[in-house]
């Protein structure tokens, strides 16, 4: 480790950070050093890791680990104590210099920093906080900072992370307590929950202070998030959806991220031999979207799963729900409330908002709806309009085959 230069460390620790999915930089407050005598960096503008904000902006982040050494031996982690991987470690000063150097070259707009546990959780957390503190206070860095905190560390250290970072995250790791005990016996679900609860309280206190005192410091303005590994244990999609909903309700999370388990070298015998389909991860993100933006209750998303509690891989969760609960349809686009229109497969939030505005001025026809959506074929069986009634189409036993695009074999040398 001592013989590695900065470039060598970066190669190891940037690669080791790729398993962390929770690095979106949306939701923070706007800050910029433009036009100021002091300071460097900004959270604004267009975006060696790319995250996407809800409005579609691409944000570039330096995403690295402080170290990939770890005193824990979690079965699913490539950086676990018993793993035969090359180790490296940055000092806090090296991370600060890297961040500033990359920013000045216009490579990045912010930093996502996580770490293995070295020496003790408190020592590691102190190093992470020192990076953020130095960037903010010593260098007046106003770019985006996301710190992955350590639930076993002293609560005051975790709180200090929120004083300097835009977003903090505490990983729940696995969807079930049983899975955590089996695959990460050194970690405690109670300690993780406690750390997330304290962070929620600190964020709320910070918001209250800002309302009363304009000069009060901002505390984690982009909130907190977490990550779950999908496919490492026996939890089905219904378990994961239920867990995610609980986390949103109890801890006020901005995001729950899902990371498909990836087989690792020298893996434990209790781990799966192959990774789950990446489409499973995608379907979980879609189900997450249904709960956050489409008004679906967790039990409704779970109702879209099959007998094994898994979401279909060939169709999205909203379509799966619609096919199971056809008595809800067809929905009249000229009369139905927004909540019901959001349940129509193929209609997104923007399309529904446009429908509600447009129907104030004229009765909508099928062609009008078609101009607002990507595939009118997917929408037609579930709506009615001035010139369209699906009649028996909604009740067809083979409806799914008429909606889902047919798979075609691509030709290697097609023109």
TrEMBL record:
Keywords (A to Z) from UniProt: Iron, Iron-sulfur, Metal-binding, S-adenosyl-L-methionine
Listed SMART domains: Elp3
Gene Ontology terms, MF aspect: catalytic activity; iron-sulfur cluster binding; metal ion binding
Pfam family, one: Radical_SAM
Domain Elp3/MiaA/NifB-like radical SAM core: 60-287
Cofactor(s) annotated in UniProt: [4Fe-4S] cluster
Signal sequence segment: none
Source organism superkingdom: Bacteria
PANTHER family attached to this UniProt entry: ENDONUCLEASE/EXONUCLEASE/PHOSPHATASE FAMILY DOMAIN-CONTAINING PROTEIN 1 (PTHR21180), TYPE II SECRETION SYSTEM PROTEIN K (PTHR21180:SF9)
Name of the featured protein: Putative DNA modification/repair radical SAM protein
Source organism per UniProt: Sphingomonas prati
Source organism phylogeny: Bacteria, Pseudomonadati, Pseudomonadota, Alphaproteobacteria, Sphingomonadales
């Amino acid at each position: 480790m001592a013989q590695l230069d900065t470039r060598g460390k970066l190669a190891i620790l940037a690669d080791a950070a790729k398993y962390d999915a929770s690095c979106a930089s949306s939701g923070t407050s706007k800050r910029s050093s433009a036009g100021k005598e002091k300071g460097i960096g900004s959270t604004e503008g267009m975006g060696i890791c790319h995250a996407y904000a809800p409005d579609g902006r691409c944000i570039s982040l330096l995403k690295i680990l402080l170290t990939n050494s770890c005193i824990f031996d979690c079965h699913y982690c490539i950086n676990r104590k018993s793993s035969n991987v090359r180790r490296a470690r940055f000092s806090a000063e090296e991370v600060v210099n890297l961040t500033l150097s990359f920013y000045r070259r216009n490579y990045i707009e912010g930093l996502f920093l996580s770490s293995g546990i070295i020496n003790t959780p408190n020592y590691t957390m102190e190093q992470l906080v020192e990076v953020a503190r130095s960037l903010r206070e010593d260098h007046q860095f106003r770019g985006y900072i996301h710190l992955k905190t350590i639930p076993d560390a002293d609560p005051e250290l975790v709180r200090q992370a929120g004083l300097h970072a835009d977003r903090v995250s505490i990983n729940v790791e696995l969807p079930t307590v049983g899975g955590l005990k089996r695959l990460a016996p050194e970690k405690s679900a109670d300690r993780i929950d406690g750390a997330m609860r304290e962070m929620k309280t600190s964020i709320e206190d910070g918001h209250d202070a800002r309302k009363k005192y304009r000069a009060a410091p901002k505390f984690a303005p982009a909130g907190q998030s977490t990550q779950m590994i999908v496919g490492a244990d026996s939890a089905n999609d219904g378990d994961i959806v239920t867990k995610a909903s609980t986390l949103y309700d109890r801890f006020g999370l901005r995001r729950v991220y899902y990371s498909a388990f990836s087989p690792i070298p020298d893996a434990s015998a209790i781990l799966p031999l192959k990774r789950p389909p990446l489409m499973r991860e995608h379907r979980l993100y879609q189900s997450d979207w249904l709960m956050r933006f489409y008004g679906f209750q967790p039990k409704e998303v779970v109702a879209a799963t099959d007998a094994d509690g898994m979401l279909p891989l060939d169709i999205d969760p909203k379509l799966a729900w619609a096919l199971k609960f056809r008595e809800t349809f067809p929905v009249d686009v000229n009369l139905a409330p927004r909540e019901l229109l959001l349940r129509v497969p193929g209609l997104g939030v923007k399309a529904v908002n446009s429908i509600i505005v447009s129907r104030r001025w004229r009765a909508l026809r099928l062609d009008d709806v078609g101009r607002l959506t990507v595939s009118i074929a997917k929408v037609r069986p579930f709506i009615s309009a001035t010139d369209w009634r699906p009649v028996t189409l909604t009740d067809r036993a083979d409806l799914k085959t008429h909606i889902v695009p047919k798979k075609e074999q691509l030709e290697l040398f097609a023109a």
